[in-house]
Amino acid sequence: MYEGELVRLRALRAEDAEHHIRWRNDPEVVHWATGGDPCFGPVTAEAVGLAFETMLRLSPRESAVFTVEDLADGTVIGMADYRDLDPFAGCATVGITIGERDRWGRGHGSDALRLLVGHLFGAYGLHRIELDTWSGNERAVRAFTRAGFREEGRRRDAVLVAGRRYDSVLFGMLREEWPGTPSE
């Protein structure tokens, strides 16, 4: 369990599936989290149940899904994950979704991202962490930049949202750019 200023990251539990079902069937959450990717939602409880069977068995040496809880009241508000952890190359990909709309724009996602990045740079000694979003998700772009990530590239017109094309935007952070890295 990792605690920040606003949120705590804890291990995923089977009972968290109910929140994932709700978020993945909320068109606004799907819109901002994935640019409306139909693979993310809407989804049945059975499909989420199957996915949870896999997520609960993930090896933290490769990937993990955490539940994001609001420290103020313990409410489950989102999820954070890492995947494609490559110890040889020293890199991983991360993702954050705050599924409770009443917590949007209040710093919970940024706090969860800081906790996850700190955990990965600290526990795994990674050299690089990356994440991406679509160019229309300006709130995510600002949050990633504020957290210290740098835009590294774009795949032009790679995301289709409501009939309009957007860029897929890749962000990265190197270990030495992380504010929590000790000076030499």
How is the secondary structure organized here?
Layout: E1 2-3, E2 7-11, H1 17-24, H2 27-34, H3 45-55, E3 64-70, E4 76-86, E5 91-98, H4 108-123, E6 128-134, H5 138-146, E7 150-161, E8 164-174
Parallel strand pairs: 5-6
Antiparallel strand pairs: 1-2, 2-3, 3-4, 4-5, 6-8, 7-8
Helix pairs in contact: 1-3
What keywords describe this structure?
5 helices; 8 strands; single chain; Aminopeptidase; eight-stranded mixed beta sheet; 184 residues; alpha+beta
Question: What features would you describe in this structure?
Answer:
This protein has 184 residues and is an alpha+beta fold. The chain has helices at 17-24, 27-34, 45-55, 108-123, 138-146, and strands at residues 2-3, 7-11, 64-70, 76-86, 91-98, 128-134, 150-161, 164-174. Strands 1-2-3-4-5-6-8-7 form an 8-stranded mixed β-sheet, sandwiched between helices. Strand 4 and strand 5 form a beta hairpin. Helix 1 crosses helix 3. It is globular. The two termini are 28 Å apart.
Low-confidence stretches: none
- Terminal residue distance: 28 Å
- Radius of gyration, in Å, reads 16 Å
The CATH homologous superfamily of the domain at 2-127 is termed Gcn5-related N-acetyltransferase (GNAT)
Percent helix among the residues?
25-40%
Which outline best applies? globular
| Proper CATH architecture of the domain at 2-127 | 3-Layer(aba) Sandwich
- Helix run count: 5
Average per-residue pLDDT, rounded, comes to 93
> Strand arrangement, largest sheet?
1-2-3-4-5-6-8-7
Number of strands: 8
The main pleated sheet reads as: 8 strands, mixed
The structural class is alpha+beta
